[in-house]
């Protein structure tokens, strides 16, 4: 099984949390010229904080500890079209602009509560955008891509798969009907 097949399998297990556009991007993975704007330190720092706000550190490691920012940058550079990369870069600028407008501070300088409040509002915009009919060539909302890649990167990372999910290194048998108690962790592959 190659990496793309593994990611597709994880996406299906996560309740198809990955959109068709992200799966299509996986089919188009390539090596070629990198978008160096994605690798700029300020972009990486902002992306890291956005991902950590989506999956914060609690009693399990958060997105920063899992290195999700590097995963997102690699996926965008290697698997997404230049226009999709630019959409995410523009979206990160929009996050900072919304932060400055609402709180008079850059996103990185906000408190965790303010970050959550801001991204919750942006997520509502994403939902509204997804409910509207799309014109030909209209791509996904930038926050859709960031959120999906954050989840994908986290739950396919070692901390995400072994600490945030229930993990058994060497499973003994397959039991298709395990009882679930509210609050239990989901199973990792």
Q: Can you tell me about this structure?
A:
- The chain is mostly helical.
- The protein contains 8 helices and no strands.
- Helix 4 crosses helix 7 and helix 5 packs across helix 7.
- It is globular.
In short:
The protein has 189 residues and is mainly alpha-helical. The chain has helices at residues 3-13, 20-27, 41-54, 68-79, 82-103, 112-131, 142-155, 158-164. The protein is built from eight helices and no strands.
Low-confidence stretches: none
User: Helix content range of the residues, please?
Assistant: 55-70%
- Counting helices, strands and paired strands, the structural category is mainly alpha
State the order of secondary-structure elements, H for helix, E for strand. Answer: HHHHHHHH
The CA-CA distance between the termini, in Å, is 13 Å
Percent strand equals: under 5%
Question: Which value, in Å, is the CA radius of gyration?
Answer: 17 Å
> How many individual β-strands?
0
**Roughly what is the average pLDDT, rounded to an integer?**
83
